[in-house]
Amino acid sequence: MTTERFDELIHPSTRLSLVATLAAADWVDFTYLKEILTLSDSALSKQLSILEQAGYVATERRLDGSRRKLHAVLTDAGREAFEGHVAALRSIVAGVTRLEAQPN
Question: What domains sit in the chain, N to C, each tagged with a CATH number?
């Protein structure tokens, strides 16, 4: 069972989108992340660095032909934080929905 936990680090929309993308895949290529999230190299690097320092993401440079490419993966701690954050958001939405359903 996932413990509801609102995570301020994940919550900003750019990081939430990044973590959600990583949660849906295994290792993800930097170029793919950049394109899907419509971020510049520097913006994506900054967000990955923040998440990596928190232990939510791991990165690795892999040789692809003659070039090294950066790949990222969500760590177990990152997945747990993401699932807890999503559960907290669902709880917030459910609470608002219950309030709206009550008669005046």
Answer: 15-94 (1.10.10.10)
